[in-house]
Amino acid sequence: MAANGIAIIVLSKKHTIISQNLIGDFVASITVAVSEKKIICTIDTIVTNTLACSQITLIFKKYEDLSISVTYSSLFMKIFLAFHKEYPQEHIQDTFKETGLNQTFQDIEEQKYRISIFYCFQNRRIYHQAVVEQYNLDMISLHSNVPVEILISSSNQLSKRMSFDADEIKRYPIITYEDFQYEDWLGIFSINPNQNITKIFDRGGLRDVTGHSDAIAVIKKGSIDTNSNNNCMTLPIVGDAPLLDIYMLKQKQYQLSSRERDFLEFFKRGLSDYYGIMDKIH
User: Fewer CB within 10 Å of terminal CB in the chain, N or C?
Assistant: First the structure.
C-alpha cells in the first residue's frame, strides 16, 4: 500500500516495514491495520526519524576516498587529475563522475555520491537554493561570474567571426545536454523548445556532434577542450550575456574529510587560475 510517497509493506500480521520516499513536503496521518489493530503513523515523524537513521553511516563513517559528481566540464576533470598527480594516494579508489545538472542533485539526495560540484546561471540560484533547503543539503559557493561561450565546428561559416551576440543564439539549430531543465539552460536564452534542438547526454558526444554539424552549443567557458580537437572552436558571447556560478553540494549533516577539504581548496585555486579572482571561503 502506498500513500503520497510513503510505502508500507506488511510482511506478516506482526511485522510491518515502513519505508519512505522523500518527495515533497507532506504532513498528514495514515492508518494501517495489522492484527486487527489500528496504528496511527504521523508522516512528519516517520520522515524525520527515517531521515535521521539514513544519515548515521554518512555522518560517522570516516572516508579516505573522493566521491564526486560534477556537471560536464573538461576543466573540472583536469583539476581533478592535477590533484591526483600532486597528491598521490596508494590503495585509495576515488570516484569522479560527469553528468547533467539534474543528476548531480539526485546523486547527493540519494547519497550515491558525497560531493557534487555544479554550475548554474545566477538567476536560477534562488530556485536551486529552495531545492537545497527542501532536501536538507548544503550549497557552498566555489566561484562566481563564470562566462558562457559558443561551441561551433571549425568548418562552420560562423568560425570567421570574433564573437557571438547573446540575442543571436535562438536563430540557429542548437545542440545541448539532455539532463538540464529547460529553465536552467535553453530558457535562459529564450530558445523555443520546439525549434531544431539535438540533446546529447555526454561531453564527448556534444563535442563530436557539434564538430560535424552547422549547429551551435552554449557551454560554460572551459567545458570543452578545443585545443585537442581541431573540429571545434569557441566564440565569446557578447552583449547581455548571463553568467554562471559554481557551487559545491553535500548533505548538510555530512562533515567533510581532511582529504575532501584539501581537494576543494585545490579545486577553488584551479578555478581561480582559470577564471580569475577566487571567492572567499565561508
Answer: C
Give the E-state strand segments of the chain in sequence order.
Answer: 2-3, 6-10, 16-20, 29-34, 37-42, 67-71, 95-99, 115-121, 137-146, 148-153, 164-165, 174-177, 197-200, 217-220, 232-238, 244-251
The fraction of the chain above a pLDDT of 90, given in percent, is: 68
Q: How would you class 113 by CB atoms within 10 Å of its CB: exposed for 0-12, middle for 13-18, buried for 19 or more?
A: buried
* AA identity, residue 62: K
Q: What angle is formed at CA 102 by the lines to CA 25 and CA 19, rounded to 5 degrees?
A: 40
Per residue in 140-155, pLDDT (tens digit) is: 999 999 999 999 999 9
What is the pTM assigned to this prediction?
Answer: 0.77
What is the distance between the alpha carbons of residues 226 and 38, in angstroms, rounded to a whole number?
65
Determine the Cα–Cα distance for residues 147 and 241; give it in Å rounded to an integer: 8
Residue found by looking up cell 566521491 in the block: 67
- DSSP assigned state of 216: B
* More confident: 251 or 281: 251
- State which H helix or E strand residue 269 sits in: helix 258-275
What per-residue confidence (pLDDT) applies to 63?
81
Q: What is the mean pLDDT of the chain?
A: 82
Q: How confident is the model at residue 36 (pLDDT cuts 50, 70, 90)?
A: very low
Q: Which domains does the chain have, with CATH numbers?
A: 2-54 (no CATH), 59-146+244-275 (3.40.190.10), 148-238 (3.40.190.10)
| Nearest-angstrom CA–CA distance, 60 and 10 | 31
